[in-house]
Amino acid sequence: MEIGPRTVATIVAVMSFAVFLGFISADPDMLQDICVADLTSKANVNGFPCKETFNETDFLFDGLAKPGPTNNTFGFVVNTANVEKFPGLNTLGLSMSRGDYAPYGLNRPHSLPRVSELVFVLYGELEVGFITTGNVFFTKTIKAGEMFVIPRGLIHFQKNKGPTPAATIGAFNSQLAGTQSIATALFAAKPTVPDDVLAKAFQIDAQQVEMIKAKLAPKS
User: What disulfide bonds does the UniProt entry report for this chain (predicted)?
Assistant: First the structure.
């Protein structure tokens, strides 16, 4: 079937719109070419003020090049390339992270309130999943070279399914995604969430609440 000029124009318009959507950021638009974050400034703004002087080193970050240590309770560690570590990202509306997993390691259920996330598997095989606000659970097993998208703000997790290490790269549409671990937020908040609230919410007793709080308390 021959494709006419009008059909071609429609296809181009749709593809252009798809590309445009891909560049939508969760952050406000920048108003200048460059605004390297001044992390030492005391100014209280939505983001970070611009440094007066900067150079090419402000636009380089190598913190995701090597695996991180996974010898912890959950067998998981994340290294972030966000504006707090990579000042050149300021006002650009993007960031990345690297997740490293021990065999059967778990990135616990958490939410990213400001961003959507694209998870790319470097190596290994992971179970990934998210839960909608209607309590519908979506899950998939992904392997090296595959990607999975997590919609903004939804509770999600990743788990290494294999007996060998795994690693992922995460891409975010904000310079500072923000992460809220569900278990830690509820059982290790400061000041603490009242035991009776947690006991009733999870249908357990106060003693069990205290046991969970003790396990999740920050290590001194």
Answer: 35-50
Each residue's pLDDT tens digit, 122-151: 999 999 999 999 999 999 999 999 999 999
- pLDDT tier for residue 46 given thresholds of 50, 70 and 90: confident
DSSP letter, residue 27: S
Q: Say if residue 79 carries a ligand binding annotation.
A: no
135 among annotated binding-site residues: no
Q: How far apart are CA 178 and CA 120, in angstroms?
A: 19
Residues 175, 92 contacting (CB under 8 angstroms): yes
Rounded to two decimals, what is the model's pTM? 0.82
pLDDT > 70 fraction of the chain, expressed in percent and rounded = 86
44 is in an annotated binding site: no
Say if residue 117 carries a ligand binding annotation.
yes
